[in-house]
Specification:
Number of helices: 17
Radius of gyration: 20 Å
Largest sheet: none
Number of strands: 0
Structural class: mainly alpha
Helix content: 55-70%
Shape: globular
Strand content: under 5%
Number of domains: 2
Distance between the termini: 32 Å
């Protein structure tokens, strides 16, 4: 029997969804949020709008660095591990895929590790395979010589259902989140279904254990209800999750802390006030 297609309205009413989105959007960025270093303690909604306006600019100007950012970001702490290295690389003259390919050709693997700041053979191999795939895409789109445009045309014409058959999607270590991230960085209005996005859908909207496909659908549907771009909702979720779910010194999740406080008999109103979880969420713990 075919499963019913995902619909967020099966979990929350439209007015509840919009109220939750408004509530988290109005929170200020904290120092652990991705956009804090760019914008300071402005509201998450304002930061998300600014991020949306500027999201593709770096990829248009320096597509090679944008490609590095996607590969390096997979399963890594962006602010601590990825951003410092990208900030350093942006001061070099690296811009195009051809320049990046030449770096890989002329540098030993050990020297390239020093260049991009990571000793990770899987990521190195992924980057090599990506550049090989891009060469094939250039042959397919022979009328274009622009790096950004090549990957934009690829990303606009993707069917996520057939990702594993795609020239990029079939590359080892490129799972759905990285696949989606690459599409986003190169001009597609979509969402990366990473840990932060799924946490917000769980903790704030009460939608637990979503697979990647349904997490994408959930964000798309929220964006549609709120009349926002999908990337804008993605940026709201990412900055809220990074800013408000990573505050404890021992790295326990907010949800785990709330659960422990509940077991200790702490008043649920106090738990809600301290953790920003709703009473409904706390009751389910």
């Amino acid at each position: 029997m075919n499963k019913k297609p995902f619909d967020i309205l099966n979990f929350k009413k439209e007015e509840e969804i919009l109220s939750i989105l408004k509530s988290i959007s109005q929170k200020p960025l904290t120092k652990t949020a991705h956009a804090f270093s760019d914008y300071g303690a402005i509201s998450i909604s304002d930061a998300a709008e600014k991020s949306t306006q500027n999201y593709f600019e770096k990829a248009k100007a320096k597509p090679a660095i944008a490609l590095l950012s996607v590969v390096l970001a997979a399963n890594r702490n962006y602010n601590k591990v990825v951003k410092p290295n990208l900030d350093r690389i942006e001061k070099t003259d690296l811009e195009t895929f051809d320049q990046l390919r030449e770096l890989l050709r002329t540098k030993s693997k050990a020297d390239f590790y020093l260049f991009w700041g990571h000793k990770d053979e899987k990521k190195y191999n992924t980057l090599v395979k990506l550049l090989e795939a891009i060469e094939e895409l250039k042959k397919i789109h022979s009328n274009s010589t622009d790096d950004f445009e090549i990957l934009n045309m690829w990303g606009q014409n993707q069917d996520l259902q057939n990702r594993e058959k795609d020239i990029v999607g079939k590359i080892p270590n490129i799972a759905t989140a990285t696949f989606q991230h690459l599409r986003m960085v190169f001009g597609v209005d979509t969402v990366k279904p990473d840990q932060r996005v799924k946490e917000v859908l769980d903790y704030e909207f009460g939608i637990q254990k979503l697979n990647d496909e349904n997490a994408i659908k959930a964000v798309e549907q929220i964006a549609s209800l709120a009349n926002l771009k999908v990337i804008t909702v993605d940026q709201i979720f990412v900055n809220y999750g990074a800013g408000y779910y990573n505050q404890s010194a021992n790295k326990l999740s907010v949800k785990e802390i709330a659960k422990r406080l509940k077991l200790l008999g702490v008043n649920q109103d106090i738990i809600s006030s301290a953790t920003l979880l709703s009473l409904e969420q706390i009751k389910r713990l």
